[in-house]
Design goal:
The chain is an alpha+beta fold. The protein has a 6-stranded mixed sheet. A 6-stranded mixed sheet has the order 8-9-10-12-15-16, covered by helices on one side. A 3-stranded antiparallel sheet has the order 11-14-13, covered by helices on one side. It is built from 5 helices and 17 strands. 24% of the residues lie in helices and 29% in strands. This is N-carbamoylputrescine amidase. Residues 5-264 form the CN hydrolase domain. It comes from Methylomarinovum caldicuralii.
Length: 295
Amino acid sequence: MPETIRIAAVQQSCLGGHEENLRRLSDATRKAAAERADLVIWPELHNGPYFCQTENPALFDLAETIPGPSTETVGRLAAELQIVIVASLFERRAPGLYHNTAVVFERDGNIAGKYRKMHIPDDPGFYEKFYFTPGDIGFKPIPTSVGKLGVLVCWDQWYPEAARLMALAGADILIYPTAIGWDPRDDEEEKRRHLEAWRLIQRSHAVANGLPVVSCNRIGLEPDPSGQTPGIDFWGHSFICGPQGEYLAQAETEETLVVTQVDFARTEKIRRIWPYLRDRRIDAYEGLTRRWLDD
């Protein structure tokens, strides 16, 4: 594994069709390669608009197999550019069985591994439980030529247990493809609190585990197909932070590449000074596997 790598997160709108979105993501990835990126992250469910705003059985037709058409396209791009890519797909595993799945492509274009989203939300505008079965692969880092990638997906961001288990399994970095935004009806103060909470929780995973974190979000207002709500205004603000939660690079709400260099050697240095893993009281944490600690 290299001591340092350059990482790029592609922040863009996903309102176009399947082919258009893949083309635009490919163009952005070529720009990232021109900036010497070794690892490129794409947003969650990037092939089209965020379809989980409504429950519609016809939308299962958007899912595809892994391997499948999208993985062939992304694999060719990874091989062409000699970079590692983290993509995000609506996976058709079997008839009636679907997942929200991140796929990691090695520099040679082969699939290095995948992660199926474990925490599935069911909130107003985010009706993912209708579409996605919770993952059954577990929290296993994916070995690649640029390190062991602790890939998680969006709603997983809010769970310290997921980040910790990836860290304990040897992840060198935590990566979150994301689709999150505001309800346009929220006032500015509520929007600010929501955004700051989102950034803070992910930076806390970096601090608690001594690992760099990449969060790659989409942007833009996507209408509710049912017309019952104003839709979701995806807020962008993708970022990359170091193992003390320090921002290394971050975006606002524009389409952009977030590019920076990450020094993996800092994990060892930080963990020697702040030995959280050493001082964990694993003999006293059995309650974490229970839903609630009733009397």
